[in-house]
Give the backbone structure.
Amino acid sequence: MSKKYTILKDTREQNGYHFNDFDYHTGSANACAEIIDQKLDTGDYSIQGFEDKICIERKACVEELANNLGHKKEAFINEIKRMEQFPHKYLILEFSLKDLLRFPENTRISMENKALIKITGRYMLKCLIEFQLNNNVHVLFCGDRKGAIFAINSIFKRITEIYTNKGN
């Protein structure tokens, strides 16, 4: 069984994740002991004791990513650059690649506002690939919220195993 860990969730994280005691996908016990709300300088989630090792930034929908790569681009790029100091850094997306490429279709954006949008799914994909190549940020398309929670929990289990076995 994996060593229990404590998840740190940034206090500014809206509609954050809850990690249940039981993993319904695998039928096994969850390794998350608890979640603590704490201000994180970079990212939305980390592991207590490994705050300098792991950083996870989450995007709940394509619209949020478009906003971050549009009029909030400078702040978002600065966050990506701050992530460079972490050996393990992830951008977790609660949508699929197909959702990204169809942007702004199938979003909550009104028809009038869709006509005003200049950012495209292809442009956002270009940015995500550049983050991977230039900043070594792992980008995971998780499909939905449940997939994202499952992916993060799996990442946290592996990180805990790596650093617990190293004795760091």
The helical segments are 62-69, 73-83, 97-102, 111-114, 121-135, 145-166.
